[in-house]
Prior knowledge:
CATH architecture: 2-Layer Sandwich
Number of domains: 1
Amino acid sequence: MFVILLVFLGLYFFGKSTWDGKSKLTVAVAKDNGDVVLVNFDPSTRFISSIKIPKNTQTTVTHELGIWQIGSVWELGFSEGYKGELLSSSAMKTFGIPVEAWSSGSFLNFVDGNVFLGLITRDTNLTLKDKIKLSRLILTTGSSAREKIDMEDTGFLESTTLPGGAPGYIVKSGMPKSLMKILF
């Protein structure tokens, strides 16, 4: 048990980190149903915001891969060898939002307080050190300091018929101030 604790502490103090623990962090999370959630952690205000993007939102995919619905970008990233980086960089390009990290849908259970599940989440670019820092923020943030936003309700998306005839959304210009305040 003592050896495990030493390894854990060694990884924490000497391991790499994606996040400095002081600035805002936005994680693009691919849910199993295809929707994407941008989870924004703000340690200065101790506030966590989750912004849901519908899976049928037209997205400009980085690495010159074209236009795709955001619900397909996670799988595309893994098939093209970019993993979740393709989702985070494409969300950043499409929405103009800084997205520093990516994770699979199980990360949302972590955000909701299941710290153990977050620590073992594998499909992510967050390091163990990042997860420990996020665990501390999650565990010390009350439910009143959490907000869930549906991007459909913000006026940032426009309902349309996508190429191929399916209903979906395109991004309008000019991000609403309510989202800018959270994300920047």
